[in-house]
């Protein structure tokens, strides 16, 4: 029965364990080869207890996703059946790639430290209008704990990142992004510059504030700056992680957002309040001036409508009248009018000032015009309502 298989010092680059299964335990020496990958394909298909020893010393192992099953073996995360089949020895074995893990001992590495060399994943060769859906279970051997997604120069307008917890770097510059929600818990880099963002919700900013982000890019967005933008302003001011904070401008300002104070942000409200206050101060003055100029017609109108009669006195209505009364009479009553009525009114106790046609009308002026003028200049019209007057009408 074969007990030892010496394959050292060859140019073997890959080992498939299922090909090395045998009826009994064999000491297989694969040291000093060029083995980069150990495949566990089909190894768990049949039960076995051969307990072969596999020596891998001095081989340039790739410590990446292609050796995912090998590192699961090192971490004790394979079935007992596999453990009973092979005892893999890694004395004098160090990682050859990737560069970040070079010369590291494979047995001490954790699964999450593996880096997949998949540099580009082309899903569609077209301009995207929404964020792509990535099905991670399609690649069982890939460690999706350190995903970088670059979707720059597309037409994506809305994105919700609540289900993308494993993304660490997200590049979304030069899109048409208007709304963004959710922050992946592992996200470290977020580039949102050159989009159509005008505001970020308070919840989103609070999540950003407590995240592991080390770099955020927000420049060249049409930010709307109002009193409600104070949360965004404070976030930009206190976070050194925003590398382009001096290039973040409001759409209605030429001053960087970080340099704006509360009065700048609330400029519209300040203007409105100022206008309202000035208006309230000016309204009484304007009203008083108008009333002073037009108080007579105003009071007459109010008096005629029975409005605020307690405020409108007859003396106020008659204050600017020239005559106390205009007397209209029949020419056939002129003797009574001149000899009796006028002397009684003008020279009596009240000393009334009367407007009469023969004394106050302008010769040659129309009777109708003179009559209207006399009525307007007199406090009261008086009509001598005699039989002669009625007959003359």
From TrEMBL:
Pfam families: TIR (PF01582)
Annotated transmembrane regions: 269-292
Membrane topology term: Single-pass membrane protein
Keyword Membrane: yes
TIR domain span: 321-393
GO MF annotations, alphabetized: signaling receptor activity
One of the GO BP terms on file: signal transduction
Gene3D superfamilies, alphabetized: Ribonuclease Inhibitor, Toll/interleukin-1 receptor homology (TIR) domain
GO CC field: plasma membrane
Cell compartment(s), UniProt: Membrane
UniProt entry tagged with the keyword Signal: yes
UniProt keyword annotations, A-Z: Leucine-rich repeat, Membrane, Signal, Transmembrane, Transmembrane helix
InterPro entries: Cys-rich_flank_reg_C, LRR_dom_sf, TIR_dom, Toll_tir_struct_dom_sf
Name of this protein: TIR domain-containing protein
Species annotation: Zophobas morio
